[in-house]
């Protein structure tokens, strides 16, 4: 589909010295009118309208693929519109690159940070703009200015610390400090809370509110609906590349979902439980059987079963040992004691290939870093696990691989241009389908799902839940870890709660409540070496953490 570009806007972006003085509180800083953008075979934006006022948080809401990323890339200079216009302080502008955006006072913080790992915090903040004295970088002044910015965002880190030595939350604060160093009037934040703990989210919100009070206009993208009313002022909803409506941030979550997906989701967690699901467990021998699993300092005496057709949720606080246990039973990490059986067959220790051959598949928390080869195609990613079996005399049966990939992609309803499309260009929900699909191609009967819906929009989450239903209906066994408490309670037939490296208890679907999970998660924790600080790693055990991810 082709579009007819609108006439080129006349003025180029003003230089910093020419930038108009901030208007009165509430004055419009930014406006997009009828913006259009097409890519080969895809209409990404189709006449989008959006505006931002000084001192407000304007939430941009939509499913993956709705056009949010394309819109913010236009404002950051990564893409240019095919039609429509962008105005700053009422004047049309052309944003043709990052420098144009910077001159206009527009800063963007992406999910994947734009920082140089081997440079210091200060060097990253002032990259390309280092203060100089007699033509030489004035490191003392640079460090002093960086320290002031870091103090403003409330992060206690030395300006000389290397970026690679910082955790996710601190990296995000460095990005905000960098934006402040640019005197940003418009701050765009793309899924900033996706990998933060509750405490880190609270700190981030305090900083955003302070920026709002200083008159900064914030464009905030999130899939966590409860964050909208907590932080936002207005919401613009995108659907299929169009701006469908603008509503107050206090709008009911169910209404936001309806506006976003174009339909009402009557049941957020549509688990189709087996007949015995309410009472926990299933008849017959388990598909996955773990007995006495232990490793010094990490976990001990771990016993549990997962039957065919069953979803078992694994819950616990940070440090409870859940991730260590599932990595051990998959063969990725060693263990000292105990056994793992699949369909009655014992597995050798620390042997991923044996685990895969036995029918265990792991969908990791970090799908982009560990579950996918982002620059490879859909077909290549779907065939990662089965490539060895598709090779004969050193040659890969590419035709057979393609037929199999087509079958799985169709079965999972992957939205794509074709099997040759790069996986990195897919939405989060479709990427997750690819990760799950490669294990289905390998005929895995036991699937370990670690944070299966993290960073996925509401509509795509329901698709993943329906896929879980299809898996269990066809006889698969599912072991699920999630930081979204309602997700675990809503989708699990049984919930196992870990505390201090042990299984503290088991809850049936009928017994599993937030309070019941909390009681087991903190069991015998007080005073034990290595006890947690209360932050939640897997299933959220306090209301605020548990609600995140809706």
Automatic annotation (TrEMBL):
Residues 1-24, 268-287 are annotated as: Disordered. GO terms for cellular component: plasma membrane. It comes from Streptomyces himastatinicus ATCC 53653. One of its GO terms (molecular function) is ATP hydrolysis activity. CDD domains: ABC_Carb_Monos_I, ABC_Carb_Monos_II. PROSITE patterns: ABC_TRANSPORTER_1, ABC_TRANSPORTER_2. It is found in: Cell membrane. The keyword Membrane applies. Residues 1-19 have a biased composition (Pro residues). Residues 30-265, 282-525 form the ABC transporter domain. It is a peripheral membrane protein. Its main location: membrane. This is Ribose import ATP-binding protein RbsA 1. Keywords: ATP-binding, Cell membrane, Membrane, Nucleotide-binding, Repeat, Translocase, Transport.
